[in-house]
Sequence to fold (495 residues):
Amino acid sequence: MEDKTAVRQIIITLAISLLAVSGQTEIKKPNILYIIVDDQSPFDFKFYNPNSQLNAPVIEKLAAEGMVIDGAYHMGSWVGGVCTASRHMIMSGRTVWHIPDRKFRKPPANPNALNPNLVPADLVKNTLAAVFNRAGYDTMRTCKRGNSYDGANKQFNVVHDSTKRGGTAKTGSAWHAERVLNYLNEREMKKDVDPFLIYFGFSHPHDVRDGTPELLKKYGAVNHRDKNSLPPANTKHPNLPINYLPKHPFPDGHPGLRDEVKVPGVWERRDERTIRNEIGRQFACSEYIDQQIGRVLDKLKAMGELNNTYIVYTSDHGMAIGRHGLQGKQNLYEHTWRVPFIVKGPGIVPGSRAQGNVYLLDTLATLCSLAKINPPITNEGISLEPVLKGHKETIRDTLYGVYSGGTKPGMRSVRKGEWKLIKYDVMKGTVRRTQLFNLNKNPYELLSEHKGDNSHQINLANNPKFTNKLKEMEVLLFKEMKRLDDPYRLWDQPK
Fold:
């Protein structure tokens, strides 16, 4: 009996000890590396557009090892500098009409910006870095300076912001990578084991697209400076996009906009040689970014942190560069409204894809969910985690887009399933247009001017066969505008 009692006591003691140890052992929180570039269309990449000639092996490997989101959007902007609204949404997790403007703009471009019922006065306390700081994360940021949410940016523990758009290591994208590498080296030296959130932002491929000499040569491009001549023709130039036009069919509402008429190397030209050269410059800058991301990922692997890190790759918005005869980012075609979006990390099936229907404003909710952090009460986004873990295909069925940075009320878009509506009410009411696209049959939103191969590769708004679908999408757009507190109304909508 005594032997049995002794054995039983030993077992109980061991069990208690094991419980004590397990109670002291916490599962390590995941790190987060959020990579965001400036001005990049998803169609620049082969995993969205097989015809693309951009070489980006590191980003392509991320796509192969993680999940590619086919339906990722930036929602829109109320100012010509689309970066501003986009980055405010990323930092705050709030919709486009519920975010502040930059402090210097008086009155603000967003008419709702000073309404405390729509834009909380203490919002900055509930932005991305502030939330993660409170959860015990070390937070670090490097990105371009300006066009962003200054108050939210200052919440990061470490900040190295500077606009770097040159073609050398000191003046280009390598500068941002060096800031991240230095930060990781310091963590390693200090034996810092706290989880980290790194906001790894680039100033490229936004113009001026001064790529490195070797990469410019690879794509046959030059940093063209002479407004009175064309860049030299080169057989290495990337091909024109499938939806290239020498001119947009109608004024889209922002005459004299810098992005459309003042970008060095392009200006107002939309000829084939100029556009192909500019795409070459874009690709040279993008490939250099790819190389810098590779350096950081190699460092994380060497530190043993890569497998416990969620990596997000995206852009603040898309870009035209010749598509539909446009140059900038002030439009709602898919090449500009959509953004590339990749997520790699624990629990995400390699090589997976999903529609997602995610906005960039869902960043805060998604990262909080992945890190097991409660999102702030001010958050309006939806976590993408159920999609990332394979439980759902989308997180919403309807997508709303706005550009109101030029003549008011501007452009509006709504997408549901394969159908997409764009409406233009610009130039003081002199331009009022409606476009209806079936994106399954016309993914590049070809117009009659493109002379597509079938009857669906045009704007279907005036086709009597689609009258009911047009009405349905019009109703849906108005519903979304009201729901999201859009302060404007289009010419054919109720006031």
